[in-house]
Amino acid sequence: MRLNEISAAQAARQLEARDITSETLVAACLERIAGRDEQVRAWAFVDREKALAAARTLDREPRRSRLHGVPFGIKDVIDTADLPSEYNSPIYRGHQPKADAACVTLLRQAGCVILGKTMTTEFANNHPSQTRNPHNPAHTPGGSSSGSAAAVADAMVPLALGTQTGGSVIRPAAYCGSWAIKPSFGSINRAGLKFLAESLDTIGIFARGAEDLALAMEVLTGRASASASASPRIGFCRTPRWSLADSATQSSLEEAARTLSRAGARVEDFEMPAGSAELFDRHKVIMGYETARALGWEYHHHRDQLSATLRARLDEGWKVARPDYDAMREHARRCRRALADAMRDIDFLLTPSAPSEAPASLASTGDPVFNRAWTLLGVPCITVPHGRGPRGLPLGVQLVARHEADMTLVAWAGWSARALS
Asked: CB neighbours of 254 closer than 8 A, spacing ≥ 6?
């Protein structure tokens, strides 16, 4: 295994034992980027010399955390003081923030190397970025965290930050074949994030395994890793939109449920609480209302520099009346409480990450139908790679837990992956 291909956890152990240096690890990642990014287009900005210099400095310093010396990619809607933050918009071409986002500060304090900025869709909305799926460049990598998903999946960097407002972490991870967590809402501080929807935006992590996610979550949330037993209680949640999953996805989920049951889990069908079916559509209205106002300055002063796709979404968002928005938010709060009650005897839910493998199109980032409701409910979600679609592209299964049960869910994801392998 080449050095750029090892997991963050493997790299952390080798760095601690001084079997490798951060400089050699970063150099291996940079070499991979140089050889592959013309095809994948996962990166918005990489400063090779700055990254190597940071790694050399960290090699001489005492270890600050278990991720000391490990490189990270940062989605380009998250501010960095030493790299541009352009949000994939001509409005912000050359924009250089004066400060790091809170999550970037935490990574630097932990001794992580910021390798560069990964591609995002325009303002993390749905207008596609330049990124290609690393398994087949004719297929979408998903969005909006296109670059982070593709960079981790293509062995360019072991860890990367993304954001999810609808399905922008879980779906691209499934399409590209990486692991990812969309934590509970608010688990990772969002200061320095270019907001899209203030009640939905969540910073997430792309990785190569459960242990990687645990290490990154320790740094970014301050929470300790958890453990899992060998007999979880799993709810198989097809959701009210099950018919939108293709046959390969349905078969993959059903096979996963059987395998986990054979491994010792108690698996039973789980229906989302009454009223939850409306969340799949109401999410879009809530997001539209909040996005129109979050991008109000850009909409009113630089409308001609927004994509036609985004302009149309903002036009619709401005039409939503405040009473309707408030009513939908209250409905979501009721469903959140009902879900917590329904999951009292369930460790996690098993549900689709995406409707299919990555579509053969670069004009769309795919459908977030199996992500929107969970994002609106604010609960933690993890994509675990599992299986292949009819064209040989990755599929994933999504695990969902109760609010704030993030670290336990990471442990269950590790248990599930071992059972499914």
From this structure: none
